[in-house]
């Protein structure tokens, strides 16, 4: 019933346009009553985005199942991938909806409010994980926002390409780009942690006498 | 006329609630006709956010006046400060609106679409500045989003504190937090550029023979 309402709605949206289609048109084509429509969808907008509520619930459950050992930034990137997976399950539908959303301002606004809910879900998780940090809530808000921006960047590139190609490779690249800048425990802007096994970094002033440089290098190399 | 419509609208919104106030109520209290209202505001939502159009235009002009020598990340942070300035010009009004927006879902959605327009304005500027970079559009989208998140984090903290205190100090701190992570020309996650005058960074592998370490250090110090 739910699926046939979605199918009927999209057929009409594409044939007549979104604004020109009424809920009565949709239920008539699906062969059900008005009350059946409202049992599944609070409004006409909701039939356009039928799976976000479930995806938000899945994301929340996924984050709640996180353990202390999980890197929080990696975890929110993986949580964001759940949204891509939902879109990638049905490329044709996702591409149709993308085109529709671009044309109808009301749907664009609806989508912004959905994106906002994903972002706040990620931010709430990060705020918990960063609770002990100075600037923890700021860090949480900024990273949640950056992850959502990177996710949407890759998602839209894939939708613009008509859902053809490997969405997950582009997604990995975009999310990596963000997580590299905000690696879990390092303060923002720090260099990646040195690989302890084989790299040593020495910082020295230009006027430092050479004997002190050598001493510091040796200490860094563990040869003291 | 415009100001008295805004004043009348807010008086009624606070007294009766937003949903319970009609445009007819507003024009009656302001002593003008309905057509005057629509000359200034396309809808009831717009009277709640009367200054965003001007602020968006100011932001666009500010970014267009940017020169190549300007650091793009610093420039978008300064552009975001224009929004804070608008709020800080009238703290009482801003705090009232903040409370109203939290209560009325339709206003929350309206605000999200305004925030989206600011974010796309910043992103469009950054896309231009990063056009020659690999991942330039990704970088632009992520930084625009992070700057907006940091701005809104500081702005909301100030609004929650009833508009008391120095909003700009908290804003500087939040925007610095983002720009440190995305310093203009370094790729994300890189260390801050060394201060050329007095600091040298040497990276070496643990197993490198000491003669090569010393040679590299000397080269780094410019003593070759």
SSE arrangement:
The structure is a homodimer of 224-residue chains.
Chain A: H1 2-16, H2 23-30, H3 34-40, H4 44-48, H5 52-64, H6 72-89, H7 91-103, H8 105-129, H9 136-160, H10 167-181, E1 199-205, H11 210-220
Brief synopsis:
Chains A, B: It holds the Pfam family TetR_N. Chain A has helices at 2-16, 23-30, 34-40, 44-48, 52-64, 72-89, 91-103, 105-129, 136-160, 167-181, 210-220; one strand spanning 199-205.
CATH topology of the largest domain in chain A: Tetracycline Repressor, domain 2
Q: Give the name of the CATH architecture of the largest domain in chain A.
A: Orthogonal Bundle
By DSSP (H or I, 4+ residues per run), the number of helices of chain A equals 11
Q: How would you describe the oligomerization state of the chains in this entry? A: homodimer
Mean pLDDT of chain A: 87
Would you count the extended β strands of chain A for me?
1
CATH class of the largest domain in chain A: Mainly Alpha
Strand content of chain A: under 5%
- Going by helix content, strand content and strand pairing, the class of chain A is mainly alpha
User: Roughly how much helix do the residues of chain A carry, as a percent range?
Assistant: 55-70%
The separation of the N and C termini of chain A measures: 75 Å
Radius of gyration of chain A: 24 Å
Uncertain stretches of chain A? 184-198
**Topology of chain A as a string of helices (H) and strands (E):** HHHHHHHHHHEH
How many structural domains in the coordinates of chain A?
A: 3
Largest interface: A-B, 53 and 54 residues
The CATH H-level homologous superfamily of the largest domain in chain A:
Tetracycline Repressor, domain 2
For the biggest sheet of chain A, the summary is:
none
Indicate the overall shape of chain A: elongated
């Amino acid at each position: 019933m739910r699926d046939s309402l979605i199918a009927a709605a999209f057929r009409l949206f594409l044939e007549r346009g979104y604004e020109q289609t009424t809920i009565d048109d949709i239920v008539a084509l699906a062969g059900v009553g008005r009350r059946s429509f409202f049992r599944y969808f609070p409004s006409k907008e909701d039939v356009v985005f039928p799976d976000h509520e479930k995806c938000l619930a899945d994301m929340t459950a996924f984050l709640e199942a996180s353990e202390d050992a999980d890197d929080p930034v990696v975890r929110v990137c993986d949580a964001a991938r759940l949204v891509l997976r939902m879109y990638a399950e049905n490329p044709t539908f996702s591409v149709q909806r993308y085109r529709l959303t671009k044309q109808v301002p009301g749907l664009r606004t609806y989508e912004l409010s959905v994106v906002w809910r994903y972002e706040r879900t990620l931010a709430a998780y990060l705020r918990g994980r960063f609770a002990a940090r100075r600037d923890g809530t700021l860090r949480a808000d900024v990273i949640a926002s950056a992850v959502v921006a990177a996710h949407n960047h890759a998602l839209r590139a894939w939708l613009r390409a008509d859902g053809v190609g490997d969405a997950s490779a582009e997604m990995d690249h975009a999310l990596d780009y963000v997580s590299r800048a905000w690696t879990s425990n390092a303060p923002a802007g720090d260099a990646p942690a040195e690989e302890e096994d084989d790299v040593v970094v020495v910082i020295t002033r230009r006027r430092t006498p050479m004997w002190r440089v050598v001493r510091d290098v040796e200490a860094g190399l563990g040869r003291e």
